Amino acid sequence: MTPRGTKIAMFLATLVTVLTGAIWPAAAHAEAGSAPTGRVVIIGVPGLMWSDVTRDNTPALWGLTAQGAGAGLSVRTTRVNTCPTDGWLTLSAGQRSRLPHGDCALPSAPILPGQDSPTGAPPPGGAVAAGWPAIKSDNAGTNYHAQIGLLGDEVHEAGGCTTAVGPGAVFGAGNGGGRVDRYVESPDKVTAADWARCPLAAVDVDDLFRAYINAGVDPKGDQVPLSDRKRAAAAAAADRRVAQVVTGLPEGTNVLVAGLSDIGVDPHLRVAIAKGPGFEPGYMTSGATRQEGLVTLTDLTATTLKLLGLKQPKQAVGSAWRSEPSEASTHERVDALMDEDVAAQAIRTVQTSFYWVLFATQLVLYGVAVIALRRLGGDRSSRARILGGTRVIALLGGAAPGASFLAGLLPWWRAEAPTPVLICTVLGFAGLLTGVALAGPWRRSAVFPGLVITGVTALVLALDVMTGSSLQLNTLMGYTALVAGRFYGFGNQAFSLFAVASILTAAWLTEYPLRKERKAIAVGIVAVIGAFAVAVDGLPAFGSDFGGVLAMVPAFAMLGLMVAGKRVSAPRLGVFFLAGAVLVLFISYLNARSDNPTHLGRFWQDLMDGDAWGVVTRKFDAMLNSLGYWPYTLALAAAVVFLFFVLARPTRWRVSLLQGAYEHSLTMRPALICALTVGVIGTLVNDSGVVILSVSFSLATPLMLAAGLRSLEIDLRNADTPPPERSGSPAASTERRSAERR
Question: For residue 96, is it left (φ>0), alpha (ψ between -120 and 50) or beta?
């Protein structure tokens, strides 16, 4: 694929644009009710992957790819794996949809003229989707509130008609009543007059999925594997159907091919191809993904409406596919799109276990160090060495989250054994960061090695979202196209890591000016880093994170107060949170007026239409679901409250490790309290819930331990050093302590 150039300069340009209010309403759209001006045929091939597309076995699909634009298609709907009817219904609504209480079988045959229908008689020559009233009612009641039949309604309201070829196509092209104007059983029975009749036609090519249905399941209910030969034969049969469609179309017809669904329980990226005016040979992207060579299923509805010259209603949440011309050959493009799915599959197998391995490994190593320290007794030299070694381990643990993103710089998924290679890559980058943290004269400090790690982590994440979010995709602590929760900007885990890294960086950078009693400079450092971090996190061009702004504004304001020596009260914290809400709503307002609003702009539109409460409720329900078992949740809440008290006054709770860190660092206390604050607020305002707090701990805890261990090591080594001669003034001892802190 075309390599992404550096886009850091966009940050200043976007910031100026926001401040001057130069984001204006979108360009004029087609008037509602205007006649369709284009012609579109959607060919749905459930289960089709780029590994099925070859020059010899699927010449029709290969030819469409050569002449048009291609992309990996994320087909995630309401379930982990998407069934064919789910995919067709998602096309119908332009929103994630499902077949209620249905198994993953082929779509039901439609109701034809002369047969009974609960929604009225089918139109002459047309059909009605089976079970439509129940499907429509069920999807309207989900968290997505999908409006089934939206695509067909838009075409009909504009004076157009719809043609469906095959059972599944009726679910995709049917209007609000589930009706299509013309129905044909299969592509080989469609006449030239049928293709020319309506501006929108949908075609169901189910040969590939049918091959798996025919293979059946074993006694345990698992899918019987299909051999490579049989899958290739099914793909070739589907390709012949595609060829029948393409050869009969009127000139100027836009052809959209979509591998609408998964096969079996394992999700994959599927095929998306667009051929027609405006789709030059190359890759595709959309405003929903901002990733070259990647689009979503809900984008298919938006693309269809745009090609028909119809206005996209707000209920359709996708963005139109855009062509990104490439000089790469067809073979190179197909290989690159296959590679996307390989990466997605590789990360899916290890992403969940990464957190458990990270935390468990740290706990085991710390436990070994504690046991060793106890057994060594009064051997101060050995204890100091163990403290130093454990400190290195803690720094390595703190560097691991940032290193997990840097691992995306290397194509580890192409290795024969990708998981071990990924582990080694993360450990390699973590070791490199730890080496840099301990390489200079700052290694003797309690906090400066941690500052190196947090600074690099925050900078890497910031530069990534400012230049296309390439390191966020298919990353251990990022997101994947298979889950399809996000495709650009900050996901919840990355936000949490970035927020905590930014706060710790800002706090520890104020260490030197505070020692010189220059509080104004220290507060200025917090303000500058805070403004930069909030802009990177919240601006739609970069992080595009709604909940992150709500958490970061009060946390940075709280840090500024603590650095300045001011008291932090609940009313002040409430005012800061309100300021964060005002800021993110202002960003949403500006984004709503842009040509291609993100979820931030759509929230403002929902707010103005009185529909925002549904979005808030869905996010809140997801957050509550993340809490899981209530006894565990209550225990976690109690632990967080206790931790706040411990961080505030470690001497009262006799936490010597933390107390030592506070004695050697003026900023350790505000740094940790504000890091915990951003984690707690982030947990409450984001749908990932406790995952955000866990990620916060994954960075802050090992770095706090490293600082505490270094403090104990300094005190232990100084215990062997004779105290300086008294000079009659405490200045000498104060000078020595200040030097040790540095």
Answer: beta
d(CA 584, CA 539): 9
Contact 53, 65 (CB under 8 A): yes
Using pLDDT thresholds of 50, 70 and 90, give the confidence band for residue 22. Answer: very low
At position 9, the amino acid (one-letter code) is: A
Helix count (H) and strand count (E) of the chain? Answer: 28, 12
Give the ranges where 665-689 is alpha helix by DSSP (H). Answer: 668-685
Residue 285, classed as helix, strand or coil, is: strand
Check pLDDT > 50 for residue 19. no
pLDDT at 102 over 90: no
How many Å apart are CA 169 and CA 160, to the nearest integer?
17
| Buried b / exposed e along 259-277 (16+ C-beta atoms within 10 A) | bbbbbeeebbbbbbbbbbe
User: If DSSP codes are grouped into helix, strand and coil, which group holds residue 111?
Assistant: strand
Given a cut of 90, whether residue 65 has pLDDT beyond it is yes
Buried b (16+ CB within 10 A) or exposed e, 143-169: ebebbbbbbbbbbbebebbbbbbbbbb
Question: At which residue do the structure tokens 């436990």 appear?
Answer: 367
C-beta neighbour count of 424 within 10 angstroms: 13
User: Does the pLDDT value for residue 724 go beyond 70?
Assistant: no
405 Cβ contact list (under 8 Å, min separation 6): 460, 461, 464, 471, 472, 475, 477, 478, 494
pTM of the predicted structure, to 2 decimals: 0.85
Q: pLDDT by residue (tens digit) across 161-183?
A: 999 999 999 999 999 999 999 99
* Whole-angstrom distance, CA of residue 282 vs CA of residue 295: 14
- 369 closest CA partner among 354, 387, 357: 387
- Whether 239 contacts 63, CB under 8 Å: no
| Residues in contact with 46: Cβ distance below 8 Å, sequence separation at least 6, in sequence order | 84, 87, 168, 206, 208, 209, 259, 260, 261, 263
